[in-house]
Amino acid sequence: MDGVPKGVPRVPEQRRPDSTPETTGPAGPAEAAALRFGVLGPVRAWRGDEPVSTGSPQQRALLAALLLREGRTATAAELIDALWGEEPPSQALAAVRTYASRLRKVLDPGGEARRSGGTATAVLVSESGGYAVRDLAEGALDLTVAQDLATEAEKARSAGDLCHARTTLRRALALWDGETLAGVPGPYAEAQRVRLEEWRLQLVESRLDMDLEQGRHAEAVSELTALTAAHPLRERLRELLMLALYRSGRQAEALAVYADTRRLLADELGVDPRPGLSELQQRILQADPSLAEPSSPAPEPAAVPVRPAQLPATVPDFTGRSAFVRELGDILSSSEGRVMAVSALAGIGGVGKTTLAVHVAHQARTAFPDGQLYVDLQGAGARAAEPETVLGSFLRALGTADSAIPDSLEERAALFRSVLAGRRVLVLLDNARDAAQVRPLLPGTDGCAALVTSRVRMVDLAGAHLIDLDVMSPDEALALFTKIVGEERVASERKAALDVVAACGFLPLAIRIAASRLAARRTWTVSVLAAKLADERRRLDELQAGDLAVKATFELGYGQLEPAQARAFRLLGLADGPDISLTAAAAVLDLPAEETEDLLESLVDTSLLESAAPGRYRFHDLVRLYARACAERDELPPSERGAALSRLLDFYLASAAGVYAIERPGDRLVDHLQPTSYPGLRFDDRHAAQDWLYAEAMSLLACARQSAGQPESLPRAIDMLWAAHDLSESGANSREYEATAETLVGAARSHGLGRAEARALMTLVNVHHVSGRFERAEEEAERAILLAQESDDLLPVCWARNARGIIALYQNRHTDGEEHLSRAIEHFRALGDRPGEAAALCNLSRIHLATGRTQSAVALARQGIDIYDGLGNSMRGANARYALGLALTQSGELGKAADRLREALEVFRDSRQRLWEGMSLFRLAEVDLAARRAALAAANAEMALTVLRGIGGEWRRGNVLTVLGRALSGIGQTGRAQVCWQEAVGIYEELGSPEAAEVRALLAPVQAA
């Protein structure tokens, strides 16, 4: 941060000696080498992994005094002063000798006999009337390890490697285990406690400073809030908190921190804030642009690469385009120290835009050491990629946690630029629709660059270097053809080869397909290929490539496929979605996975299919159109086209049902889904099931939308969406899920499918509930009940009643809520749906709680837990523990309430349930407030705000802000509390929520003061 000294703090006051005092004799024994000591917490010792008793408090005080001298001798007088200060006991010297003797026995048992034989050196030695601890192995004292790590972190930070510096500093801080020298008496121990605690806080401040430099401001607010409560007069922490709040978009709170600090310093010390704090306040008031973004690269997340390498593989036979390669290479290599370089390649489909861009990007990788990002924007397709979705993917690849990814396009784009600040990253945006799609995806920072490919010229992309890519020259085309086919086959038939590439219109994609066919057929000559191209041209209106030769080339490649290959090519082209997995492709083809893989790999060899990633495949958009045209023309009987898509839908539905079942044992939804003829995947592990669902999300949702126009498939598509409703709460896929749900509701309504519409409405009810749009959720649930009752479909009635009950709770309509939930319980019991019954019981518990029936609320929640635990349903059991935690909080059993909520929190995190993770943190903050732990309450509320970004809706945000304000008020940060309450009032007033009056009452005393 500007104006603040950089670097990692060293241990204050007491310096480590430059070298260990000389000793005589051989190296220490194995027992000495195995000894380890800890002073950053209780004073402890271990031999290997076995703890060693360090005796009484005074004996531990003696050991600590010797360890902290790091090999130097402490005289008897110094040790007496260290243990007792100015009033030692009369037998102090004898006591010191006794403690030393006891320590020597436990630290070096049997050592005296070995030393008399000249084979060992003592750990605790007597010297010049004093004592010392010597000959410890490297890393034997936790303090020494922490010092070494801090030094390493300082060097890394000075070298600009903030990621390594931050990680190393976290390792150093992790060595603390509670209070330093805990329970050790004496003035020396007390002085060392103060010294080492000060150093620890300096290390924490340094690490938090690096957090902010790396864009982790949202996560840092929670920790800084707790630290400022514990150390209210520490201005450096206040400064970091102000900056973290400002970068999180909370300017008013940042300024309130300054006001609170100024008031506190005046009241407690009679002084003003130091200049750095006052300067920061002024810069915030002036909206200083240099404060808005971090100055260094984002840190690496766990299990996510710090330097993404997403570029597709370059083709080994890249040919020609040398002028363009040089031109683009020069632009990219000159991006350092200048505003972001943007190059936009335009040209018809198949002209080689992607191949050229990927080739150039690979050549330029060394100029972008912080990573390369790639995305196919699907601009030529019916549904181009949404910039919000792409930014979410990019941010995750760069290490941003899901909980830190905001909801809106503008916020995601700003965070993307912030994360890239100070990094050198290349972004390849392939197949863009237009400049509007591209703009939010540009890095916008010095040293980064973007390559864009599109079929349209990006004339309205400001600052872009535009390149129009035409077909190859005859020489380049012939060279590409020769590389693929082989020099020996082309040399004797050069004229025929020129005829081939001319028939391909000199288009790289067409040349590649034609050459691949010839390379695979050793008995053909080039003349045979030329003749086939001349004879087999067809006008395929479905392909708008602008050149008939392209169509002829596709036709040639397709015409030479084996029957099984041709069938696979046709049918796979029917499926929507950005790509397709091997197992999904096997369903389309109705073949075993091994046989399917062989077919798909053979299509990859012919350049008619691309390998997007291991086990995933995709078509070039022109080839997909051609494949669909072939399916419409050649697939016999025609019903096989529908059958292939039906199998794909069955596969997704059955697999999604498998995910649902393994996550929610005993839930009857899977028994009431549409039957399938084709099986799905079987999952033995909950995490593997979740991984599959999120990996297949975009393809699964595309399949659902594709089914909207087919009345016979629509009910299965809707059931698939219901079974996959975890996607609606993921944050990453919520928008696509909602759009798909809206599409299916409209389709069911237009086709007059009441039963299907009721189920589709239930998917929307969940979407609106998660997003906090309770009025819309109520409307959709009411209509779902009517339609489901008309079609005698009890399951949607059950869940709609349950949803209306919890919505009524949120809207303070407790009588309505109790009626809905009581009827839901009856319906679930009629179906034999025990998990559904448990869900309604837990929600009814909350109604009882809201109406003052605390004991019955506890009993109802416990009934729900018993049901879930009996079924082994851990995820839903977490919801029940959440409900019980609320009831126990109100009954005053705060310890038990916190235990239940922490249990729920652990499961929600493990299950990727962001909404409920955030809500559990919020409820823990309420427990902490009730237990008068205001600092911890503030920290938990801050974490809840971070997790709930982009999910949960404004009403829930208002609730968290209200509790956060109460917690901040409890730790004396009244100005910041007022800002939180004002924001909450604004939210409630906009929503028309009655909570506004309650928060106004909180504000009144503050405003009056």
Structure description:
- 60% of the residues lie in helices and 6% in strands.
- It is built from 46 helices and 14 strands.
- A 5-stranded parallel sheet has the order 8-9-10-7-11, with helices on both faces.
- It is globular and about 115 Å long.
- A hairpin with a 5-residue loop joins β1 and β2.
- The longest helix is centred in the N-terminal third of the chain and has 27 residues, at 187-213.
- With 1009 residues, the chain is mostly helical.
Summary of the model, kept short:
By secondary structure, the chain is mainly α.
N-to-C CA distance: 34 Å
The radius of gyration is 34 Å
Mass-distribution shape = globular
Low-confidence stretches: 1-5, 15-33, 113-120, 296-305, 536-548
Question: Could you estimate the helical fraction of the residues in percent?
Answer: 55-70%
**For the residues shown, what is the average pLDDT?**
85
Protein topology:
Elements: H1 30-34, E1 35-38, E2 44-47, E3 50-52, H2 57-67, E4 74-75, H3 76-84, H4 92-107, H5 111-116, E5 124-127, E6 130-133, H6 142-158, H7 162-173, H8 187-213, H9 217-230, H10 235-247, H11 251-268, H12 275-285, H13 289-292, H14 322-333, E7 341-346, H15 353-363, E8 372-376, H16 387-397, H17 409-420, E9 426-432, H18 435-438, E10 449-454, E11 465-468, H19 474-485, H20 487-491, H21 494-503, H22 508-519, H23 526-535, H24 548-559, H25 563-572, E12 580-581, H26 582-589, H27 593-605, E13 610-613, E14 616-618, H28 621-634, H29 639-663, H30 686-695, H31 697-706, H32 714-723, H33 734-750, H34 754-770, H35 774-790, H36 794-810, H37 814-831, H38 834-850, H39 854-871, H40 874-890, H41 894-910, H42 914-930, H43 934-947, H44 953-970, H45 974-991, H46 995-1008
Parallel strand pairs: 7-10, 7-11, 8-9, 9-10
Antiparallel strand pairs: 1-2, 2-3, 4-6, 5-6, 12-14, 13-14
